[in-house]
Amino acid sequence: MGRVTRTLVYALLVGMAAVICFPVLFAVTGALSSQWELEEKLLPIFTYAEDMADWTLLPLAPTLRSLVEVLLDSPGFFTMFWNSVKISAGILAGQLVVDVPAAWALAKFPVRGKGKLLTLYILLMLMPFQVLMYPQYLVLRDLELLDTLGAVILPGIFSTFPVFLLHRFFQAIPKELLEAARLDGAGEVRIFCQIGIPLGTPGIVAVMILSFLDSWNMIEQPMTFLKSKELWPLSLFLPSIGLEDVGMGFAAALLMLIPALLLFLFCQDDLKQGIALSGGKD
């Protein structure tokens, strides 16, 4: 690769990174801006006026008032925050109990119709929530889980994505290793716990990170299955923000990014390793 080509590639990557990071910078600027400044700049958006909204990369009058107001004077924010924590923790715990063993069984046991089952998993992964919304609603209604956090947690536990992706990780574990363990007298549960889980840890961590990001940011499921606002997660805090609270909205958006950002920073090596292993040969 020549010097000119390398420079062009680096410039392209820097430009793409800037585009991707701009929403974060947008949230930081909004969270540090004064309420009057935000109202002046964003008024055309909220009033559907023909004028163009204005924005600057640096606030004219920086202030921490919006952040302080969200953290100290908004009990509803913390209620929604803990609802998001409960939903994400419930989904991840359920996927560890249900999806990880299911993926191991599909990868290592001679299940009849395995190929058709995996095809069905792919089809379910491709279907948007709107297609599955009504069947899920009927099931949750019969289980009397509507308007409870379980209405959001239960469908997330039985998501097809973790099973399909973990199936790829577990397939990469050599069969000879499992046969040697069986010859030594190890049972299937012991093989799964002492061989499958340790060797599949990068894949499990990667799947848990992706599942956390999905559950932390979900909007449609809570809006559909939760009627009581005291059960709403943090992702529904922003749609209820008006022009008079736009500063709090930016502050809440910035605070909502922090858990996902910290998770990525501390687990990015496991995430990259897991994604790399998922493309390995069976």
Quick rundown:
Helices cover 74% and strands 0% of the residues.
What's the helical proportion of residues? over 70%
Q: According to CATH, what is the class of the largest domain?
A: Mainly Alpha
Give the topology string: H per helix, E per strand.
Answer: HHHHHHHHHHHHH
Instruction: Give me the CATH fold name of the largest domain.
Output: MetI-like fold
Average of pLDDT? 84
Cα gyration radius (Å): 23 Å
Structural class, by secondary structure, is mainly alpha
Q: Number of helical segments?
A: 13
CATH H-level superfamily of the largest domain: MetI-like
CATH architectural grouping of the largest domain: Orthogonal Bundle
> Which overall shape is indicated by the principal axes computed on the Cα atoms?
globular
Q: How many structural domains are formed by the residues?
A: 2
Give a count of the beta strands, DSSP E runs of length 2 or more. 0
Amino-to-carboxy terminus distance: 33 Å
Describe the structure.
This protein is mostly helical and 282 residues long. The chain is globular, with a radius of gyration of 23 Å. The protein is built from 13 helices and no strands. The two termini are 33 Å apart. The model has no long low-confidence stretch (mean pLDDT 84).
